[in-house]
């Protein structure tokens, strides 16, 4: 009870008592007591109440803060209702009220934040409680005023909300499958996920696809979406930007504070069904901070009521889908196929041009040059719609091939600028790696291993961890839609190769060639005309053709040339004039004599002379004092390397002699080279070599700390295991007692070479090959490539817990081999080639496999079977072959059955074969024609 109430009660008692005593005629002065008490009550009340109120602040701080929050929430609701009726208040009272509400929201947020962080502090409790009480009085007044303003606004005729007209959509060629996937996601009332990502390269049609759903929302009336919103994010978009876009779209109040704006958006959508379309998202966006109610999908609120909350966003990068948490619930939008691309292009240029036979043919050629990129087809098609002269069309085709888009469209090259956005956000080193891909010919598959080798040779990657770093960069470029997965074909797979889209490649060449004004980089091209000698004075990087070199003279000057690649033979007389060159790749040009002309290129750091025919290195090679990377693999006749040549190349980090010297009886340089590497203490981050004996391998083991052997060819290896060798390796005798007469190679001999990535065993009389590790990763853990070639007596292979990272297996001319059941245990196997094995009857022998558990080729993508006259089936068991995309069958006349389990929603498997073999197999029901896409090229 308050002190004032107690005093009044006491006063009443004294008044009654005084009255009685007066009646009895006693002590009249007592009537003065009530007067005195009244004065005392007034005095004590005025003194005590402020003290009691202040002392009570810290005891009731939580309630006061929560009351203020509730009041502010009511104000926000009134503000939202008022904004719908009167978005832009004209009266000064209305404007002042809105500003006061915004100020109060900011003050309330500060009080809440301060109270949450003050801990058990008496003085802080007093302060925040008093502040909450003060703002609460303001909130009460604002609520009253807001209700009055709301009544006034309701009494006035309020504006009708604008509804955008529903225009008929342009036909979207090639989009039917994507439209169905998005529609299924939106209409799915059972899904728990409400987030879908659509990703693909710039200009592929992502915006057009989501706009279709924005403008066709009537299709989803059964789902009763209260709102269908389209928001463009764009580069650098923040939570605040998205909030403003949504608020503008829904005509919600716009406040400067993101937290307050979040509350306004949340309160509007929390009890509504909505479809939110976010276009062109460049990075992670926290939807909850925007104000989007969670969870997305189908959100139950009552036993018989639920809300449908769907969000679809588009982005250029798959990485963004991962950041948003929907990597597995994403759709990649790819470029149009040739037919749909031509239809779109024809629509933009007009029917009149297409009707003309000659112009129509040229229009289709120009459309094909756009690579199915919708933005390019539209831009160039519209620019060419007025061109009626065939010469103009031929000129446009040539200009586009040269990346000179400006001369076709007469615009500011917006197409290339938009494609360049993704390039601009790369690191400088990744930009260099990306641009290097443009040197490969258009539409050609680029081997990942070769690309990484180039990056190392150009100094873009550190040789010590080049493989891991290189694959990381390649995968990042693929996820960013700057590169594409390679084609599945005879010499490539989508895992081993990548490609550059035509327009991305044109954009890259446009960048390096000064927006098309220079010819600084010359890519590999069969269409490019040969340059005159004076034009070569500006060239920096070139992949030359026979047409180029045919016009060279010995006096040609290339003062800026730093990189040269060639794949056809040409005269190297002019090589001394390439004074600044640092990178020279002449792989496969079949040089019969070592080109001594290159020994004067003292700035050279990378030299590749692989797959040639010369028999020895030149002693003047020591003049290449800056040489770091020397590739001379696959030179079968290589016999001599001058003594101490390698040790004099002080900067050498890579020496690749894999399979060099293998066609001769013995490699003559081997012993002296290994001794040189040991005595001179040379450090090599990569070493590829051909060996013949166990002693050679033991020598490599001694070099383990300074020389990293990553590629090994065991050629004519006849140093088989016998009792003493097996004992020295701590192997149990009984393992081989029953088969002592067989010649065996046990790959545990290579256990110390754990960094080895390539292994070839060639021209040996081995009968049994054994590879058994003690555990899953115990033997050859990094091996990725295995070749068994010309093993004429090989009968069996035992493989267990070894080389489990092997991706490629090649078996060639193993004439006694009847099956290759062991490959089934290679769980990462992607490519299998078996050829010229005349006794091979099955790839997998189920009788041999009965007591073992296999992995069922879960990663196999490519299968090549050639010149196998006795092969009658792959296996008696049906395999799923979930990843298989390419098969080649050549000269396997007895093979009539390829059993593959039925696959759902997967692309057909391309099969290269003879038309007669295909017809026979289909007629005998040995092959399910519905699973394959036959190419009769044999």
From TrEMBL:
For the biological process aspect of GO, one term held by this record is:
innate immune response-activating signaling pathway
Residue ranges annotated as transmembrane are 27-48
Q: Which UniProt keywords apply?
A: ATP-binding, Membrane, Nucleotide-binding, Plant defense, Repeat, Signal, Transmembrane, Transmembrane helix
Note whether Isomerase occurs among the keywords.
no
Question: Where would one find the signal peptide in this protein?
Answer: 1-19
Q: Which family does it belong to?
A: Belongs to the disease resistance NB-LRR family.
Protein name listed in UniProt: NB-ARC domain-containing protein
């Amino acid at each position: 009870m308050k002190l004032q109430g107690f005093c009044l009660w006491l006063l009443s008692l004294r008044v009654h008592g005084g009255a009685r005593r007066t009646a009895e005629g006693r002590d009249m002065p007592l009537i003065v007591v009530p007067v005195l008490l009244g004065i005392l009550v007034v005095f004590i009340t005025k003194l005590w109440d402020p003290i009691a109120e202040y002392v009570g602040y810290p005891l009731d701080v939580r309630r006061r803060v929560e009351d203020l929050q509730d009041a502010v929430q009511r104000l926000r609701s009134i503000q939202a209702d008022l904004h719908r009726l009167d978005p832009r208040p004209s009266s000064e009272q209305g404007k002042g009220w809105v500003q006061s509400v915004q100020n109060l929201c900011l003050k309330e947020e500060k009080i809440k934040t301060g109270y949450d962080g003050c801990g058990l502090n008496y003085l802080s409790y007093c302060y925040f409680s008093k502040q909450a009480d003060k703002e609460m009085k303001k909130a009460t007044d604002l609520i009253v005023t807001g209700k009055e303003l709301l009544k006034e606004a309701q009494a006035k005729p309020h504006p009708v909300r604008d509804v955008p007209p529903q225009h008929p959509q342009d036909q979207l060629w090639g989009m039917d499958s994507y439209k169905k996937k998005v529609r299924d996601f939106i209409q799915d009332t059972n899904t728990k996920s409400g987030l879908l990502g659509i990703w693909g390269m710039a200009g592929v049609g992502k915006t057009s696809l989501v706009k279709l759903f924005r403008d066709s929302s009537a299709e989803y009336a059964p789902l009763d979406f209260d709102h269908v919103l389209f928001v463009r994010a764009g580069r650098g978009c923040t939570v605040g930007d998205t909030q403003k876009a949504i608020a503008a779209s829904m005509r919600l109040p716009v406040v400067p504070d993101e937290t307050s704006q979040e509350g306004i958006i949340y309160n509007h959508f929390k009890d509504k069904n909505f479809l939110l379309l976010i276009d062109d998202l460049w990075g992670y966006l926290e939807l909850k901070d925007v104000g989007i109610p969670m969870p997305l999908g189908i959100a139950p609120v009552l036993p018989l009521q639920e809300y449908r909350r769907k969000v679809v966003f588009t982005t250029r990068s798959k990485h963004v889908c991962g950041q948003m948490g929907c990597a597995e619930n994403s759709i990649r939008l790819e470029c149009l196929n040739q037919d749909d691309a031509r239809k779109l292009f024809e629509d933009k240029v007009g029917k009149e041009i297409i009707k003309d036979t000659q112009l129509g043919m040229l229009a289709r050629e120009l459309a094909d040059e756009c690579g199915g990129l919708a933005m390019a087809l539209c831009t160039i098609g519209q620019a060419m719609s007025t061109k009626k002269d065939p010469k103009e069309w031929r000129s446009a085709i040539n200009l586009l091939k040269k990346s000179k888009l400006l001369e076709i469209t007469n615009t500011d090259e917006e197409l290339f600028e938009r494609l360049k956005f993704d390039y601009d956000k790369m690191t400088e080193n990744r930009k260099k790696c990306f641009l290097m891909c443009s040197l490969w010919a258009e539409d050609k598959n680029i081997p990942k291993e070769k690309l990484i080798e180039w990056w190392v040779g150009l100094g873009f990657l550190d040789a010590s961890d080049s493989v891991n770093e290189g694959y990381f960069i390649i995968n990042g470029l693929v996820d960013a839609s700057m590169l594409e997965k390679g084609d599945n074909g005879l010499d490539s797979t989508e895992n081993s190769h990548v490609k550059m889209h035509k327009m991305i490649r044109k954009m890259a060449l446009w960048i390096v060639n000064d927006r098309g004004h220079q010819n600084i980089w010359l890519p590999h091209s069969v269409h490019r005309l040969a340059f005159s000698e004076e034009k070569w004075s500006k060239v920096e990087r070139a992949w030359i053709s026979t047409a180029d070199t045919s016009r060279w003279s010995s006096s040609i000057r290339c003062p800026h040339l730093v990189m040269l690649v060639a794949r056809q033979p040409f005269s190297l007389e002019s090589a001394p004039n390439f004074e600044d060159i640092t990178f020279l790749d002449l792989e496969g040009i079949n040089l019969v004599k070592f080109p001594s002309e290159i020994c004067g290129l003292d700035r050279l750091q990378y030299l590749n002379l692989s797959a040639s025919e010369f028999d020895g290195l030149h002693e003047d090679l020591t003049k290449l004092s800056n040489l770091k990377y020397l590739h001379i693999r696959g030179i079968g006749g290589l016999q001599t390397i001058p003594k101490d040549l390698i040790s004099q190349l002080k900067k050498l980090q890579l020496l690749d002699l894999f399979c060099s010297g293998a066609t001769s009886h013995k490699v003559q340089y081997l012993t002296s080279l290994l001794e040189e590497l040991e005595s001179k203490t040379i450090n090599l981050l990569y070493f590829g070599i051909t060996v013949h004996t166990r002693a050679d391998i033991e020598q490599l083991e001694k070099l383990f700390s300074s020389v990293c052997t990553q590629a090994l060819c065991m050629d004519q290896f006849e140093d088989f295991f016998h009792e003493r060798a097996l004992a020295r390796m701590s192997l149990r005798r009984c393992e081989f007692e029953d088969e002592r007469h067989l010649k065996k190679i046990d790959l545990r001999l290579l256990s110390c070479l754990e960094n080895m990535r390539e292994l070839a065993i060639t021209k040996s009389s081995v009968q049994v090959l054994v590879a058994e590790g003690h555990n899953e990763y115990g033997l050859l853990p990094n091996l990725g490539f295995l070749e068994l070639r010309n093993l004429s007596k090989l009968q069996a292979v035992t493989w267990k817990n070894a080389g489990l990272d092997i991706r490629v297996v090649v078996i060639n001319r193993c004439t006694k081999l009847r099956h290759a059941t062991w490959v089934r245990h290679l769980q990462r196997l992607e490519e299998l080639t078996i050829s010229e094995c005349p006794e091979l009857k099955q790839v997998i022998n189920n009788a041999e496999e009965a007591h073992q558990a296999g992995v069922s080729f879960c990663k196999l993508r490519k299968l090549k079977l050639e010149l196998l006259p006795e092969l009658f089936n792959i296996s008696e068991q049906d395999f799923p072959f979930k990843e298989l995309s390419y098969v080649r069958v050549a000269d396997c006349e007895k093979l009539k059955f390829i059993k593959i389990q039925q696959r759902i929603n997967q692309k057909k498997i391309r099969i290269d074969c003879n038309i007669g073999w295909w017809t026979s197999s289909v007629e005998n029901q040995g092959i399910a024609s519905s699973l394959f896409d036959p190419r009769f090229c044999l």
